[in-house]
Amino acid sequence: MVDRQRSRYVGGAEGAPPLPPPGGYAGAARARGGLDAAAGLPQASGATYTDPSAVARKQGVNALGLAAISATAIFAVILLLMLAGGTDALYGVTLLVLQLAIVGLIVAALLTPRGRMLGAIALAVSLVFNVATVGAMGALQSAANQAYDGTKSEQQRHEEAYPAVKDHSPQDALSGASLEEVQAEGDALMAAIRTRVSERFGYTWVQNGTADVSPERNGYGGESMLQKYTSTVWTTEQPVQDDARKREVMQVIGEVLVERGMSDLYSLNQVGTGISPDMVAKLYGSTEPARQHTWEYYSDTYPDPMRFYAYAYDLSNDPTGEFRTQREAIATQTGEPLEGIQLVVFARRVLPEADRAEFEQRLQEYPGF
Fold first, then answer.
1. Averaged pLDDT score across all residues of the chain
2. CA neighbor of 307 nearest in space, from 245, 230, 237
3. In whole angstroms, what is the distance from residue 60 CA to residue 75 CA?
4. Which of 24, 75, 311, 367 has the fewest CB atoms within 10 Å, i.e. is most exposed?
């Protein structure tokens, strides 16, 4: 006798899987409901139901994160733009309140699942660009440029415009040689020295660099009307490495200086000249002149402002090669020889002739300085 129940599953379908039992497998309705929901189809009775308000809340979370990152980026740009105008405006009440509002928006974004990533990015940006950090950047910039106009009093601005130099009598500039006189005298002095040294030793000279004239700081945070002058440099094209010859050349230079009313040469590279032995060794390569790569001599026209320097550069006394590296770097910029005898004129706090009348007029505004 054939089992009727069995024939329902196998009849006419050899090798096929058995049909599901009446009512279906357990949990099939829940699985089908999930697939229908994903496809946007109406769900059968008993399927899982998703609340539309929950979907809306999830979409709102992403918008909160976008709002946080957008507000933070705009605020950072505003801070950087305001930084160009000075640091005072950065510490106003409006910006501080706006900063707190953005912090609240970032915290709200961090507390939501889908806005957490954008909230974290906004937090990182706000940690770099905020009132405190951008204000500190502005303070450093002001310190570097000595620009504190926003916090200066009228007295400070007045001092900043002082035309002379603090702790130096402006009468020295008025009674001393002018900038043009120093330039002319310096050029004539070095021409006389070059001629005398060439006649005695046969050396030839090359001129390098350009004369530099720049304003002196006045000691009150501003620039004075007085100038600092550095001439072009003249260097022998031939090295001078023999110590006896170096002394002979310096002696001849000293003769010219004395003839022109200047002081005799004074050696700065020897111990006992007011510089500690350690510093002498650091500046000139050794405390012993015979082992030094640089000899430096000085003369002046005190109380007039002109100063004269003569150097003897000798690479044969450079065992480490460090001094050669320094000289090569300088030669790359100026084109001057690496070694030899070098001459240069220097002056501080000199007044151009064209500025003399204005200088005297402006000094009248500073009777107690």
1. 83
2. 230
3. 22
4. 367
Name the β-bridge partners of 208.
233
Q: Give residue 47's pLDDT.
A: 47
- Given the structure tokens 């909230």, which residue do they identify? 119
Q: Is the pLDDT of residue 92 over 90?
A: no
Taking a C-beta distance cutoff of 8 angstroms, is the pair 68, 121 a contact?
A: no
Q: Amino acid letter at 199?
A: E
Q: Which amino acid is at 346?
A: F
Name the residue with tokens 């005190």.
302
| Residue-level pLDDT at 68 | 83
CB atoms within 10 A of CB 79: 22
Cβ distance 46 to 56 under 8 Å?
A: no
- Would you tell me how many other CB atoms lie within 10 Å of the CB of residue 26? 8
Cβ within 8 Å of residue 3, ≥6 positions away = none
State pLDDT tens for residues 120-160: 898 888 888 887 787 777 666 655 555 555 567 788 889 99
Q: Give pLDDT, residue 168.
A: 93
- The alpha carbon dihedral of 61, 63, 67, 73 has a sign of positive
Question: Over the stretch 219-273, which tens digit does the pLDDT of each residue have?
Answer: 999 999 999 999 999 999 999 999 999 999 999 999 999 999 999 999 999 998 8
The whole-model pTM stands at 0.61
Instruction: Identify the sign of the CA torsion 256, 257, 261, 265.
Output: negative
What would the 3-class secondary structure string for the chain be?
A: CCCHHHHHHHCCCCCCCCCCCCCCCCCHHHHHHHHHHHHCCCCCCCCCCCCHHHHHHHHHHHHHHHHHHHHHHHHHHHHHHHHCCCCHHHHCHHHHHHHHHHHHHHHHHHCCCCCHHHHHHHHHHHHHCCHHHHHHHHHHHHHHHCCCHHHCCHHHHHHHCCCCCCCCCHHHHHHCCCHHHHHHHHHHHHHHHHHHHHHHHCCCEEEECCCEEEEEECCCCCEEEEEEEECCEEEECCCCCCHHHHHHHHHHHHHHHHHCCCCCCEECCCCCCCCCHHHHHHHHCCCCHHHCCEEEEEEECCCCCEEEEEEEECHHHCCCCHHHHHHHHHHHHHCCCCCEEEEEEEEEEECCHHHHHHHHHHHCCCCCC
pLDDT digits (tens, 9 = 90+) for 72-86: 888 888 877 776 655
